Amino acid sequence: MKLGVKEMLYGALLTGFAILIPLVFRGWLQIYIPPFSATVGSHVPTMLAMFISPWVAVLVGLGSTLGFLVTLGPVIAARASIHILFGLAGALLFQRGFKPWQVLLLTAPIHAAGESLVVMPFGFALYQALVVVGIGTLLHHALDSGVSLVLYGALGKAGIPLDSLVRRPVSHKS
Asked: Where are the alpha helices (DSSP H) in 73-135?
């Protein structure tokens, strides 16, 4: 697969943000209730990457995993690794013609279930995994989805349409 220069550039910038957000916002815009944490805006780079390409979404998810490994350790990094999966799923949905809001809505359960399941091998109880992490992740996904949709629209109006890098079929009717 050949990646274009703009695709690589946007991927590198979003990956940088995915690494920096947990470093810069640590303890400031962060809620931490083990095994759950929510860093405001931490899903935004992955969500925007979904509108570029599957490869960019995976790269940004890897960056997010690295950022959380450095700041909050292996349990939160394992949760952040789910950004790779939901980012890839979202990018594939977007390529198939789903609208951005549909992509974000459809990836929410993948994101929440993945983060819930990944903490269980670390010894967390079912309640902590499903309720604290699962519901917390759904709420955090919804918040960051709103931010992502606003940024997606603003970037398009500013002449930086992320989806111009991806060939898409006719979108689904709402």
From this structure: 74-80, 82-95, 100-119, 126-127
